[in-house]
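Reopening this one. Same input as before:
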Amino acid sequence: MNTNIPNGFSLDPQSGLYYKTTIGINEQGQPGEWDTWYYPDTGEFVQTFTPTVPNIKISRTPAAAPKKIALLHIALPVAGLLVGILIAVFQFGGSGGGGSLTPNGQGNPPGGGQAQGTPDPNSGGDTQNPGSSSPGVSAPVEIPSEKLSVAGGHILGLRANGTTIIASDADSTPIDVSGWTDIIAVAMGSYHAVGLKSNGTVVATGDNYSGQLDVSGWSDIIAIAAAGRHTVGLKSDGTLVKAGANDYNEMNVSGWNDIVSISHGTNHIVGLKSDGTVVAAGENDKGQTEVSGWSGIVYLEAGDYHTLGVKADGTVVGTGWSTSNQLELKDFHNIIAVAGGYGHTVGLRADGTVIGTGSNSYGQLDLSGWTNIIALACEGFITVGLKSDGTVLSTGSTDYGEAPDTSGWNLC
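Same output, byte for byte:
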């Protein structure tokens, strides 16, 4: 028996299998829950899908599930809306790399003790429909925002094999991430890079002026965020750990709990709770932390000086700085993810196209030709998009010239 249980999986006492759950849709567009089941006797994986009726919350809560991060089960008021968001943010598989899982199309744990499909790291395919899949069923649609991060003149990317790649503008101090392996999420600060490993530990490199690299003792981490000279980690129990500067009280998060995702702006941090509400800490000179009245949020993102939340109906709410109209969000519909820079906001539609609002002074909103996008990242005057084929698009400019070149990247 394989006793090395993948992090992020919980025990189902009735079947003796381990599982993790995501919200997604099947090939017919039905919303529901995807359960990924792990067989400890063979080390194999199987997926099952349980559809849910629109406007009805999913309420699957197996007993005795140790350290299972709370998933935000949101009613889906539009059956066809692609709100396939992994609220828990982490993607703890066995190796943190790519691969495909063969679904069996059933709504319960597979019987017989033998897995119906095994991960194939060489299968290829995109995030929305990876390599091996049974007829009539597709893999869960997730927003792989943890694969891409941009800050300080650097764009940091995560390959499917768990290694990382970085591109920098001409005037930025190089940051070396070439030796990183087994990474499942990345985050970029102004002068440092952070990687989350599949065993729940964290690596960091770059400038350590404010102690933002002091993460060597962290464990049981399921998500990371970074900005400026700050690094934050989300633990599987829903609490946070932090390292780095605290000039604006952005690190005053010791009382936070029940958090399922985090995002960091220039000097503020926001956290999404399992009930769909939001908490925030840090600088509030532009109203970027005024989120106490928000509810029903399924995706949360901090821009440089504003905060954005996607609601279950695909609309977007925002607060903070809007001198460039970056909070003019009335035309944002069918949105499944958002990102924000210094003076602009972009939204990822369910059809893989992108909408933008705010300043376009450096071309950061030149998005008309972008299609098949599955994740977005912004900072300053740059917008970056990950396509379903693993290639990466970028537009805009850093303070010192054109956006870093990602033209040769493939993160598949």
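So the earlier flakiness isn't reproducible anymore. For the record, The radius of gyration is 20 Å.
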